[in-house]
Amino acid sequence: MGILVEKSADCPYINFSEDGILEIEGRSITEDPFTFWQPLLEWVETYTKHPSPKTEVIIYMEYSNSSSNKYINELLRKLEECHRKTSSVRVTWRYEQDDESIYQLGRDFESMLHVPFEFIEVNTSADSSKRIRVKNKSNGSEAIITHRYWEAIVRNGHGEDYQILQEFSN
Question: Other C-beta atoms within 10 Å of 116: how many?
């Protein structure tokens, strides 16, 4: 079973799936990084025992404090060990145009690890913040979610459980 966490003001969006796609996106400035990151580290530890043949880690941080960086480093180190033993692991490090600090953070991680990194500069646009109003078909509840969260729902096989009512652009 994977982990899916919606992005908040101080915690990133997380989508870790057993099919080998691990996504981290947003800000990580939580006052209690242990409570947020420890379950993710435990999930990765379990995942690395029986990983997918290929693991893609996609990281797109807006900001990450030093405590969170330590956890991200630990998470990547667990995956590095998996990469050496059984599975192909690749990190895609996305960063916003002109965000030198996040770009450099990715380069720092790359220099400490023996895992292939790909760096992608993202031209910030309204697409990343599109919202969708969905309705749960079983209980009728409605919610407005990000397009990215919707993609994760579909990828995890639950798209048929919802009806898209409206798409918003910025």
Answer: 12
Report d(CA 119, CA 91) in Å as an integer.
9
Residue 161 dihedral angles phi and psi, to the nearest 5°:
-80, -10
CA angle 30, 2, 26 (to 5 degrees): 35
Instruction: Residue 97: name the closest of 67, 57, 56, 128 by CA.
Output: 128
| φ, ψ at 75 (rounded to 5°) | -60, -45
pTM for the whole thing?
Answer: 0.74
Domain boundaries, the chain: 3-124, 126-170
Q: Note the pLDDT tens digit of each residue in 137-153.
A: 999 999 888 777 787 77
b/e code 123-154 from CB counts within 10 Å (16+ = b)? eeeeeeeebbebbeeeeeeeeeebebbbebbe
Q: How many CB atoms lie within 10 A of CB 51?
A: 20
d(CA 158, CA 105): 34
What would the pLDDT profile of 30-47 be if each residue is shown by its tens digit?
Answer: 889 999 999 999 999 999
Pick one of 1.20.1740, 3.30.750, 1.10.10, 3.40.50 as the CATH number of 3-124. 3.30.750
What is the identity of the amino acid at 88? S
